[in-house]
Amino acid sequence: MVRPSTKAFVWGFLAVFALSGLLGIEAWPFSGFRLFSRVRTATVAGWEVTTVDAAGAEQPERFDGRSWLHVAEGMAGLPEKERLAVCRAWAIPGAAGSVVEVRVYRTWTPLDASAPPARRELRAACLL
Questions:
Q1: What is the reported pLDDT for 111?
Q2: Residues 58, 52: contact at Cβ < 8 Å?
Q3: Does the pTM exceed 0.70?
Q4: Which has fewest Cβ within 10 Å: 40, 100, 110, 122?
């Protein structure tokens, strides 16, 4: 004989499990199953921030553990004053004084190593 409290727990667990799938909630151990329900493509979308020196040479910015992706995604929508402040903060770690521009690109990188190189699109830029 199964105790009523065990039945209530199992029914509650199943209800939360079903709701998390229907609502797309990701809270362990419940899952919205996005990992298995999204379409996979041959490319991975990402972001790249580069600095440009006075000679026009472009170098990728290294963030070393700093969180920047959420800022890069919204750069194009920032007011000019805020965008310039972010660009100045990003240019500081580079060669001091030689950075004249910061660029933010949306990138698409192929998963297949034999495919053509990544495509990128300029989304925001700041002249310093």
A1: 85
A2: yes
A3: no
A4: 40
